[in-house]
Amino acid sequence: MSARRVDLLVAGGGPAGLVTALHAARAGLDVEVWEPRGGTVDKACGEGLMPGALAELHRLGVDPAGHALRGIRYTAGTTSVDAAFRRGPGRGIRRTTLHDALREAALGAGARIVPRRVGAFTQDDTGVLVDGVRAAYLVGADGLHSSVRRAAGLDLPAAPRPRFGLRQHFRVAPWSDLVEVHWAAHAEGYVTPVAPDVVGVAVLAATGGGYDERLRQLPELADRLRGAEPVSEVRGAGPLHQRVRRRVAGRVVLVGDAAGYVDALTGEGLALAFAQARAAVAAMVDDDPERYERDYLRVTRRYRWLTTALLAATRPAVGRRVLVPAARLLPGVFARSVDALARPVD
Ligand SMILES: Cc1cc2nc3c(=O)[nH]c(=O)nc-3n(C[C@H](O)[C@H](O)[C@H](O)COP(=O)(O)OP(=O)(O)OC[C@H]3O[C@@H](n4cnc5c(N)ncnc54)[C@H](O)[C@@H]3O)c2cc1C
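A: This is the predicted complex of the input protein with flavin-adenine dinucleotide.
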């Protein structure tokens, strides 16, 4: 029996996979997304869309509801420093709301979403064969622990000093329209308003331990949340740092976290995933996948630089102690760094 043919098979129906499918369907490709999890997909995420990510969604005509984000506040104990986004607000958007909006847009554009997992595949010069389906290209958008990446031989050994993230939502009126980053000796807490009565709180740390234990390391934040009803279960993800040899292997192309990830501490994962999806589809439409390898390095350069530098600076205890006072002393530098996060990824 001959294989059924599609132009593009996307492994993973998270934000990267759905935006890839949306661009591809609008470019006239026959697209199928395989996502094993049915219904609305949730995930551990800080849920802060930087202004560049929001602009990328608006370019696609997707406008999910959420809470406007005016900038970023770094805080440690009683010291804090704010910087506003200079190019318009970002938005705190629940992952479930984002997923529903992207899914609807992808389906509306003609993509098919199928409840299947991408397993073993083979490829030749003209396509990829996956479980009876022959696709001109296979996109691995299957997240941090991408099995497509592994099967294509694109994994690199695990990075040292792994960090993990956990998040939960609380019913409480947001006390700020800034993303608040609370710095402590061994953890950071990220507060993102996502609705008039709900905030999401993500905690990142290199150490193990449960959510409550990590939150106890951030007493000012724990005080804010005292008595607030948790309105979601705790979800986690990690190790965050995923190193990747390259993003293209023949007709297999990686986007989103599958393509490599440094850390969540600058909140840029979604902006990058959307920009990568756009660049990857443009390269596949022109049948020039290697161009995406170059475009990937270009669109992620600033993120890789800034995130690696911030991680290195805040790994030693002294770096974490001086970060917020230093940002207060050098408000121009802090404002420029926040502006860099807000810029469109191109
Ligand atoms: C704690 C934390 C906080 C964060 N905060 C922010 C933030 O504030 N702002 C921001 O922009 N980013 C943030 N990020 C990063 C952001 O969440 C990710 O960059 C984003 O989810 C990447 O989307 P993705 O589609 O690549 O992967 P995912 O969202 O992980 O989706 C991958 C999908 O692939 C599916 N899948 C897996 N294996 C297969 C397979 N074999 N076949 C088919 N499907 C498969 C999975 O079911 C899943 O639905 C944060 C991340 C963490 C962990």
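Residues 4-69+90-158+240-315 form a domain with the FAD/NAD(P)-binding domain fold (CATH 3.50.50.60). The mean pLDDT is 95.
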